[in-house]
Amino acid sequence: MNRLAACVVCYWALLVSPVAAFAGHPSACKETGTRIPDIRLTEVARNLDSPVHITHAGDGSKRLFIVEQAGRILALSGNKPGATAFLDIRDKVSSGGERGLLSVAFHPRFRSNGRFYVNYTVRDKGLYTIVSEFHLNKTGTVDYTSERVLLRIKQPYSNHNGGQLAFGHDGYLYIGMGDGGSANDPPGNGQNLGTLLGAMLRIDVDKQDKNTAYAIPTDNPFVGKTGARPEIWAYGLRNPWRFSFDRHSGELYAADVGQDEVEEINIIEKGKNYGWRIMEGPQCTPDINPDCNKKGLSLPIYSYRHNVGRSITGGHVYRGKNIPSLCGSYVYGDFVSQGIWALRYKDGKVIVHKTLFDPQSLLKLVIDFFDDDGLLISSFGEDEDGELYVASYQSGRVFRIVAR
Q1: What is the pLDDT of residues 134-190, one digit of tens each?
Q2: Considering its fold, how many domains does the chain have in total?
Q3: What backbone phi and psi angles, to 5 degrees, belong to 15?
Q4: Which one of 13, 107, 197, 386 is separated from 286 by 20 to 30 angstroms, measured CA to CA?
Q5: Which CATH number goes with the domain that contains 305?
Q6: In which domain, by residue range, is 161 found?
């Protein structure tokens, strides 16, 4: 028993070591083939309170920003062993379950204008999703009086809040909204262009239209369509918990969390309908209509059933330089099964798929030996150099993905 424990400790030291340095230059990796390499996880932060999002500010500081669900954003910088508070709005946020402070997105010109955007839930005679803007003051810290609410969206139930914010290559802010919750989307929000729920939204935060705190890009697909919300870029989504843009191609990868049977990955494109609640993944939703009409619906590029995992966590296309053979691979995971996979998507199809982290592997057994909470992948993240990170929700840790 003692020899086994010693072996496990050695294996853990090799696979998960405390490193907090993010060196390197902006990514320019080149895809070299279809082989996807093996990976390991290196710990960069611990003692976090339910981390749910990881990102960078694109300001040259190389800081890694970690969002805690209760309402804080921490900044991890250089070789410093701990993270420091960047934003604390715990007094505003309604947190728990799928609610909370769910993501942050930094303005493309954050370095010069100090503006950033957050997505969080509040209770005020009901549950609402808030998307708001903050900016820094002259000392480089957050001016809490600067908060400007852009969107206040009523949530009919406490789950399926979406929560991801990200700027596209076009400079517009994209907002992932779930269907509003419950089972089978009772109000039919996913197929209703008259609501902001169940959709990917796209807004211009640098301008303002009359009666809104933002502007509608003129090329949004439903501008001028009677009864449709012009903010909508695409619809038919159940709960796009995490989405990301390929920093090379600009493609928008969204992982839509499934209901009873299927998890799915979509490439989100202008004006398309991704099927929910008519479809769950590539199949007709059994409890709605098992013989549905699929005409006009966009199918996922990849899906898996619940014998593999039960809650997909969207990731990123790797564009870093430290794992050259991973370049161009979309890395994603599952919150429940704790697996991590990668795929390559080319010419409209997935050409290769590989398990990077097997939920039943020795590595998982090692993590569980030290931490009964397991990995529970709530989010992936990308630093300024394109290197990837994984957030472990319940154990409060963040890992960097490195080559094995």
Answers
A1: 999 999 999 999 999 999 999 999 999 999 999 999 999 999 999 999 999 999 999
A2: 1
A3: -95, -35
A4: 197
A5: 2.120.10.30
A6: 2-403
